[in-house]
């Protein structure tokens, strides 16, 4: 089955700096890659996703890049703010087709943004 | 009430107890999920229901028994649990199209402690 590795496990930055979180996946057939943000004591929420036919996607201060050849994808947060502090999870799935797609999650990255 | 709601928020039970977790989604989705979130581990998929049919049972012990009476409600029946089952149990829903498990909306979870 799919295996997703996420790094780093913790990341500490100063407000205004950029943050980058990286994930690698094992199944070359995976074609859908979402990122979820989970603030302390709250539910995970989808913040951005990308499909395998796209190399990069941006939404305001966040962006995701995908390298299918190397089987890795990254989350980039620019101009970080204290409210960006949370646990971020990447995930991968083989979506569509005849088999039911399911999300495999990475271990999570605890991001702390210091004012 | 909107989104995905889970009850109870917290549950403490002994190993011989029987209890049930409840999840209700108000988003008109047709797929529902149970995930287990333990400290320092990735989110683990337990069960998936699509159109009220169980499509995934991720090698979960029989002491966990899911029930999906309709597309808006999902239960997780618990009996004779072990201390290692203590975790945050998250329910999620999505609009499943052609086997796509994408854009999950999570509930706030039930924090379960097994004594």
Descriptive report:
The complex is a heterodimer of chains A (115) and B (115). Chain A is an all-beta fold and 115 residues long. Chain A is 0% helix and 53% strand. Chain A is built from no helices and eleven strands. By secondary structure, chain B is mainly β. Chain B has no helices and eleven strands. Chain B is globular and about 40 Å long. The model of chain B has no long low-confidence stretch (mean pLDDT 90). The chains are: A mainly beta (115), B mainly beta (115). The interface between A and B is medium-sized, with 27 and 24 residues.
Order of helices and strands of chain A: EEEEEEEEEEE
- Number of H/I helices of chain A: 0
Largest β sheet strand count, sense and barrel closure of chain A:
6 strands, mixed
Q: What is the averaged pLDDT score of chain A?
A: 93
**What is the tally of helical segments of chain B?**
0
Range of strand content of chain A: over 45%
Proportion of residues in β-strands of chain B: over 45%
Radius of gyration of chain A: 14 Å
Number of strands of chain A: 11
Class derived from helix and strand content of chain B: mainly beta
According to DSSP, the number of beta strands of chain B is: 11
Helix fraction of chain B by DSSP (H/I, runs of at least 4): under 10%
Lay out the secondary structure:
The complex is a heterodimer of chains A (115) and B (115).
Chain A (H helix, E strand, L loop, with lengths): L3 E4 L2 E5 L4 E7 L6 E7 L6 E7 L4 E4 L2 E6 L4 E6 L8 E7 L11 E2 L3 E6 L1
Parallel strand pairs in A: 2-11
Antiparallel strand pairs in A: 1-3, 3-8, 4-5, 4-9, 6-7, 7-8, 9-10, 9-11
Chain B lengths: L3 E4 L2 E4 L4 E8 L5 E7 L6 E7 L2 E5 L6 E7 L2 E7 L7 E8 L10 E2 L3 E5 L1
Parallel strand pairs in B: 2-11
Antiparallel strand pairs in B: 1-3, 3-8, 4-5, 4-9, 5-6, 7-8, 9-10, 9-11
